[in-house]
Amino acid sequence: xxxxxxPYSLESLAFPFPALAALAGRLPLGSGxxxxxxxxxxxxxxxxxxxxxxxxxxxxxxxxxxxxxxxxSLALPxxxxxxxxxxxxxxxxxxxxxVSALRSLIxxxxxxLDGPAIQELEQLTRTLDS
Length: 130
Fold this sequence. Notes:
Layout: H1 18-26, H2 31-47, H3 57-72, H4 78-90, H5 95-109, H6 115-129
């Protein structure tokens, strides 16, 4: 089998948070699933600050404002509501604030997320911290 790619073929896309997405898909409706969905939202917002193509500051502010509205509609456990809101607000500012907010979010959601999902969030904090 030839492992070389064709000259006009596209590179395959890699989704950065498969464990969070898989967890959200596996869990039944309710607070556990909504914690996973909110974690996926926060992770994608945070990655937009430093990813391969960083978003502009006005775009990050607009996304954070829209995400806060969506986040308020979720049935999140009380102990996770503030850390999620803090993470969403932090994505409109500096990566240092995002890392701090993500670390508190990981602690608050440890009992709701599985190991691979938490590892993805921890890897995101390391990516943003570098």
